[in-house]
Amino acid sequence: MCSRPLPLRAMHNIADFEAAARRRLPRGLFAYVARGAEDDLAVRANRDAFAEIRFRPRVLADVSRRRLHTRILGREQGLPLGVAPTGPPGFLWYQGELALARAAAHLAIPMILSSASTISMAELMRAGGEGAKWFQLYMSGDRALSVALIDKASRAGFEALVLTVDSIVSPNREFAAKSGYTVPPKITLRIAMEALASPRWLMGTIGRYLLAGGLPRMVDYPLPDPRDPLKHGIPLKDDSISWDTLRTIRKRWPGKLIVKGVLDPRDAMACADAGVDAIIVSNHGGLVLDGAMATIEALPAIADAVGQRIEVYLDGGIRRGSDVIKAVALGAKAVFLGRSLLFALAAFGEIGVIRALELLRGEMDRTLASLGCSELSELTRDHVVLPGERYARRLSSDTRQVRRR
Ligand SMILES: Cc1cc2nc3c(=O)[nH]c(=O)nc-3n(C[C@H](O)[C@H](O)[C@H](O)COP(=O)(O)O)c2cc1C
Asked: Of 109, 172, 196, 249, which is least surrounded by CB within 10 A?
């Protein structure tokens, strides 16, 4: 239902942005962003796993000079954050990808443009500013189309190619099928009613597109038949990709190569062997394999296996600065933000995304200080207590005391 919007200054955390996005967006579109596949088990697992990790702070450490700097693929940046690639920004806010890119440039953090973007590669590069621009690739069943896309991204000047490997079949998003939010979208009576009940979105997003000449669509993806994207099956899915495919891409792509969607350390090692520069530990935000392990649970073993050879990033369930600090303590060089920024974008556009990133920065800074650290590089595994470790230490020392007595 239409309700009075809250001002930006009333946003104090990501949960506030989520509530504001829920108020502005049509019901089904909000669910499309917020929910996952089947029973949302993996979406919940990502959040629950962060909540189960506790901190073990150190004190009296003089943390009066703190910074959150890090180095990502050879670039200095002020925060260990980046914008994850997602399909819907252009449907949430007018030219949403550009709004995200400008906000990322404002804080000099990397922005990953999705294969499914409604903004062209060239337009994104023109948005300019500081912060790296990376392109995310879904392999298509038609390899020639994918090769053309890889070459196009290279010509456009993207520094890194992010190959998503965990979304090889179309996801089972039952709620979306029920509500009609399918790819490609169909205008049903239900969707029309929901849109009418969301006038701020209807006028501010869809209305602006109509005034500018038409609804958003995937612009760069070279479809076999652009008028009928699904004619040859879902073009963004390819269940035949293999390590050979990765090696071929490595040979073709001249820049940095990142693999997104790794949860097993053996796959992480194979990525490093194949000449990949970094991996993103990800379960696609719970959108594909329901019941997948939480990404923060997968991180420590992967960081142990390959952290000395390649950079390891994480996404999935980051809603607080303290989540970022937990991920860094467990071996992530940086984390990528999906829904946190989509909610901020949907509610307020570019200024909302900047505010969300600033809130996260404040939370990270306070957490770092409270742990007795001045730099991210000082964070270690001793700063966090994992669920299985909570009582183990106490029990062993208790036993020793009993023996001494
Ligand atoms: C609505 C939605 C669309 C997404 N689209 C893409 C995409 O086009 N390409 C991709 O690699 N990942 C996509 N993702 C996954 C994100 O890149 C990222 O892995 C995930 O959102 C991280 O979890 P979080 O949303 O809890 O931060 C999408 C996620 C959401 C929520």
From this structure: 196
